[in-house]
Amino acid sequence: MRGAEANTLAVLDTKTGIVPYDMSTTRATMAQAYRPYEQHRGERPLIALIISRSHVDHCTTRLEVIFGRSFNINSPHDSTVPEDPAMPHHDPFTLEDLDTLLEQRTGPCVSMFLPTARVTADTDRDRIQLRNFRSDAFEHLMREHGLRRPDAESLLVPVDEMLEDVEFWPYLSDGLAIFLEPSAHFVFRVAEPLEPRLGVGNRFVLKPLIPLLSGDGTYYVLALSRNELRLFEGSRRGAREVQVDDLPRNMAKALTRRGREGERGMNKLWQGDEGQKKLYRKYFLEVDRALRPLYAGRSEPLVIAGVDYLLPIFREATGYRHIVDGGIHGNPEELSEAEIHERAWSLVEPILDAPRQDALDKLKALRGTERVSDDVSTLLGAAYDGRVESLFIDIDVDLFGTFDPTSREFAVRASEAEASDVDLTALAARWVFARGGMVFGASEGDVSEERPIAAVMRY
Q1: Segment 118-168, tens digit of pLDDT
Q2: How far apart are CA 400 and CA 247, in angstroms?
Q3: Which of these, 242, 135, 235, 216, lies nearest to 393 by C-alpha position?
Q4: What phi, psi does 269 have (nearest 5°)?
Q5: What is the pLDDT of residue 177?
Q6: SS3 448
Q7: Quick one: which of 284, 285, 290, 332 has its CA closest to 308?
C-alpha cells in the first residue's frame, strides 16, 4: 500500500495480528496507506514490526503517532485509543485558576508568556525564547529581589525541566503561560497566541489570560464522513484537530462497538436510502454520546462539515443546541486544517464578534453618562456589587494597588510597590465574571492611556 511518498507500506496479515513491514514517515501518509487495510480487515493487534533498513523513511519510534493509536508489542491484544501525541494540547484556564493565582504569595512571583508553534520543527525558537526569559528572570530575582543564587536557581527549576523535557514540546498549542513562586508553579498551554512578556514581582501578571475566560473567539468543527471523523477546535487565528475520549474514528468503529457488524455487514443489513439514513443516524448518535462530556456547560458555536445528505441527519441526532446554520459542504476528508478554519471562520466570525461589538457600541453610546465609567475606584466597587455589565481592560498596562470592598478604601500605584498590592484590573475582572458580566480585551481607542479600564453599568 502506497501513501503520498516514495516509501511503500506492507502489512503482513497473520492469525494473531499484523506485522507492518517498513513505515511511512508521517502520520498523514501512514494513515492514508493503512486505511484500505483497516477498512477491509478492521482494527487488529500489532504483534511485531519489521524494519528492513535504518533509513528514516523505513522506521519510526512512535508507532502511536503514525497509526493514531497505542500498541503494546508485549501484549498484542491490548490496544487502546489514547490522546494522540501528535495533536497540540491546551489547558483550559478557569475562574478557579484565576482565584488561585490572585491569592497573596509568600515570595517573588515570576510570570512568563510567549507564543508557541504547533509545528514541531519550530519548537527550537520557542525554547530559545523560554531560555532567554529564564536568564532574565534569574537576574531580576537576584538583583531586584535579593535572592541568593541557590534560591533563584531553585525557583526556576520547573523551567529548566521544561527545557529538557522532549515530551513537552510536541504538545504545544498557540501560547504558553508559566507562573512560578517558591512553593508552587502553574503551566497553561492555551489556544491563543500570547505576546512575549516576562514579569517578576510580588504578584503574578494575569491580564494576558483574562480574555480567555470569556470564551472569545473559540469554536468547534465536526468533520463527518463514513470513513473518517475529526473534531477541530478553532479561534480567529486557526484551527487544530483535537482528541476526545471514546470518539469513534469512523462509522464502522462506531457501530461495531455496539455489537453490530463491521462495514461489509452494514452494507448487507441496511440497503436503500431509508436504510442508509437509519444507519447514519445510529452512527451520529454514537458520535453525540462521545461528545456529551465536551458539550456539558458549553455554548461555543459548532460547525458541521460533510456532504449535504449528512448534515440534517446529524442535526436531528445531536443534543447540542449551538450548531451554526449552514455548514461546510462537501467531503471534509479532502480539507486541510487551514481550509477547515478558513471556511468555518466565515460562518462563526459574526456570531463570535457579536457580544463584544454590542458591548462596545453600548460603551460608545453611553460614554459621558452615569452608565459608563473609567474611574478605577468606582469600577472596583461596582464590580464587587454586581453592577458591571461589560468591562474593557488594556491587557498591556499594569494597575497595581489595594481595594477593600467593605470600607471601599482604595490605593493605586504605577508599579507594584508593596507585597500586599494586587492587580486591580484582574480583581475587577474576577468579580465581573462571577456576577455574570462580560470582560473583553480593549483595542486601541476603547480605553484611554491614563485609565486603562472602562465599563458599562447595568444601572
Answers
A1: 655 566 888 999 999 999 999 999 999 999 999 999 999 999 999 998 878
A2: 46
A3: 216
A4: -80, -30
A5: 96
A6: coil
A7: 332
* Cβ atoms of residues 76 and 17 within 8 Å: yes
297 — alpha (psi -120 to 50), left (phi > 0) or beta? left
Sequence letter at residue 11:
V
Task: Return the domain boundaries, the chain.
Answer: 1-86, 95-205, 219-350, 367-457
Asked if the model's pLDDT at residue 41 lies above 70, the reply is yes
**Average pLDDT for the chain:** 81
**CB 200, CB 182: distance < 8 Å:** no
H or E stretch at 393 = strand 388-393
| Cα-based distances in Å from 167 to 86, 136, 162, 359 | 11, 25, 9, 42
Q: What is the DSSP string of 161-229?
A: HHHH-TTTGGG--SEEEEEEETTEEEEEEESS----EEEEESS---GGGGGGGGTTT-EEEEEE-SS-E
Cell of 338: 487551514
- Of 62-66, 350-354, 403-407, 447-451, the poorest mean pLDDT is in 62-66
Q: Is 380 exposed, middle or buried (0-12, 13-18, 19+ CB in 10 A)?
A: buried
Reduce the DSSP state of residue 69 to 3 states and report it. Answer: coil
Side chain identity at 310, as an amino acid letter?
Answer: L
- State pLDDT tens for residues 22-36: 765 555 556 666 767
CATH class of 367-457: alpha beta
- Domain 95-205: assigned CATH number: 3.30.960.10
C-alpha cell at 128: 530559545
Q: pLDDT tens-digit profile of 365-380?
A: 999 999 999 999 999 9
Cβ pair 252, 262 in contact under 8 A: yes
For residues 237 and 6, give the distance between their C-alpha atoms in angstroms, rounded to a whole number.
Answer: 33
Q: Mean pLDDT lowest for which of 207-211, 252-256, 286-290, 417-421? A: 417-421
The reported pLDDT for the residue numbered 55 is 52
Q: Can you give the length of the chain in residues?
A: 459
List pLDDT tens digits, range 412-447. 876 655 667 888 888 999 999 999 999 988 876 677
Can you read off the three cell numbers belonging to residue 274? 431509508
Cell of 458: 447595568
Which cell is 412 given?
Answer: 493605586
Top CATH class of 219-350 equals alpha beta
Range list of H helices, 224-336? 251-256, 263-269, 272-295, 311-317
Pick from 82-96, 176-190, 369-383, 437-451: least confident? 82-96
